[in-house]
Amino acid sequence: MISSFSHTTATGLSALLDNKISHDKITQFLSSSDYASKALWLLVKKQVKSVEDENGCIIFDDTIQEKAYTDENEIITWHFDHTKNRTVKGVNILNCLYSTDDVDIPVAFEIIRKTIWYSELKTRKAKRKRVVLNK
């Protein structure tokens, strides 16, 4: 849906997935207030189990949705973009896909939050950093 060049719909996503997930379930997921990996996993677990095989793998990748003109906060902040070799302001999302021969299913995600303010000693410039909690 992020890389679509036109309007996206739950019906369109369902069709893209060969109707393995109904548009009603997609709409219900997007309408919930809990956009967490656990909710996503509960939605796709059955589909992952149905295509699971010994050649399947988990792929982790991150993406930054640039928000250059939006006020900075703990989610919309500066992140290093390795594709541009510089920092950009935006939302950094870590994605996890289960991939097998002809199927890629998103199974988890995390929005990177930088909640701690600190000051660089040399420049005294205020910056944000992420706190990683052991779960």
Short description:
The chain contains 3 helices and 6 strands.
Describe this structure in words.
The protein has 135 residues and is of the alpha+beta class. The chain folds into 2 domains: 1-31, no CATH class; 36-129, no CATH class. The protein contains 3 helices and 6 strands. Strands 1, 2, 3 and 4 form a 4-stranded antiparallel sheet that branches. It has a two-stranded antiparallel ribbon with strand order 5-6. Helix 1 packs across helix 2. The protein is elongated, with a radius of gyration of 18 Å. The model has no long low-confidence stretch (mean pLDDT 86).
Q: How many angstroms does the end-to-end distance come to?
A: 30 Å
**Total DSSP helices:** 3
Q: List SSEs in N-to-C order.
A: HHHEEEEEE
* Secondary structure: number of strands: 6
CA-based gyration radius: 18 Å
Question: What general outline do the C-alpha atoms trace?
Answer: elongated
Salient structural properties:
single chain, 135 residues, alpha+beta, 2 domains, 4-stranded antiparallel β-sheet, two-stranded antiparallel ribbon, 3 helices, 6 strands, elongated
Element layout with pairings:
Blueprint: H1 10-16, H2 23-31, H3 37-51, E1 57-66, E2 76-81, E3 86-100, E4 103-111, E5 116-119, E6 126-129
Antiparallel strand pairs: 1-3, 2-3, 3-4, 5-6
Helix pairs in contact: 1-2
